[in-house]
Amino acid sequence: MIRILTGALTVPEIRKKIGFTLALLALYRIGAQIPVPGVSEEGVRAIQESFGSGSALQLLNVFSGGALSQIAIFALGIMPYITASIVLQLLQVVVPSLEKLKQEGEQGQQRITQYTRYLTVALAAGQSVAYVFLFRTFSDQAGEPLIDPFNFGTVFMIAVSLTAGAMIVMWMGELITQRGVGNGMSLMIFASIVSGLPGGVSNWWQSGDQVFKVLLPFLVLAVIAAVVFIQEGQRRIPIQYAKRVIGRRMSGGGQTYLPLKVNMANVIPVIFAASIMSIPPTIAQFITHDPANGVQEFLRYGSWAYVAGETIFIILFTYFYTAVTFNPVEQADNLKKYGGFIPGVRPGRPTAEFLDRILARLTFPGALYLAAVAALPTLLFNQTTQGFAFGGTSLLIVVGVALDTVKQVEAQLMMRNYEGFLR
User: Fold this and answer.
1) Residues forming beta bridges with residue 349, ordered by sequence position
2) Are 47 and 69 in contact (CB under 8 A)?
3) Distance between CA atoms of 85 and 100, rounded to whole angstroms?
4) Chain segment 366-403, per-residue pLDDT in tens
5) Closest CA to 42 of 154, 141, 143, 162
6) Is residue 69 part of a domain?
7) Per-residue pLDDT tens for 276-323?
8) Which pTM value belongs to this model?
9) Residue among 379, 407, 397 nearest 308 (CA)
10) Could you say which of 177, 195, 213 is where a domain stops?
11) Are residues 180 and 56 in the same domain?
């Protein structure tokens, strides 16, 4: 493995892409440590106490690499862009004009990307203003003013700084996708979660619960093995192409397969469900500041109500997102257009119905897998550990992004006739 990795780094083009990716991720982590202008250090320390175990904002803080609790320039992270991307993908199903743009190829995709950026600016601006007022209530409750003086000019400056930071993060993510290795948005979240691993290891090592110290490594290994096993699992549908006679020559023919992954939605349902579950406690925290009261305690991270709600949303979003990204009717039409068919299944509508049945059977275990990986570690260890570094959601995202990145590097190595990582 080390020999192959060393050989891959000797390829100048791949080495430049890896260096470019690491450099932008380093800049992202530096920006996550620089506070926005206009906030006091005492107020920031008071804010950080509100991000303790069970806080509704804790998961969002993990996705930002701790920048949210420090009110840094990159406090919003990449989440506004991911949310905007998901919303645009969902709208393509119900809005005819967006669906038409999707079918126009690269030019239409550029228009959709531009709409995604505009929506990201709007979401980032709205979140910035909401966070300013929410954090002000936290600091005032602790007796440490976060913003002094609190007026329109100061609030506007902080909101603009946070929104601009989200735009810079979006720009760096797109640069990584275009010129680096892997998906830039996923790698941003990956870097944010991994930055919390040292704190998670410290909490684990200093824990006085000996059962927790012994069982946690085995649980982490079990979650990683489950993620790798399911992420790589697929159902291969055999495809036969008919031979065609063109002039005096016979072309076409042959047999291949259509790979249907068990988990076609990847980690998108988990991120979306976690974001939705954080909304009610955050609103309740905005209204009342007693963390042991009402909705905040009922939907506290790690509670049975939180896990049950997150599980339901994960299953629903897995089915919905899979239906959005994979269209059996479109796949059947493409097969018919290029002379392909599934042995034993008639082309056209019967093929679409066959693919839809197979997809429904695959999606159910995939949805249960996502829900189990996200929920079980939380139920077992949330009351003991103080961080999310070993949480099921975090491990699922980290392992999934790592697998996708390795596959992309593998593909580039295969293009250059190098032996790849995966055997």
Assistant:
1) none
2) yes
3) 17
4) 888 888 877 776 666 555 544 444 566 777 788 888 88
5) 143
6) yes
7) 777 776 666 666 555 445 555 666 666 677 778 888 888 888 888 888
8) 0.78
9) 379
10) 195
11) yes
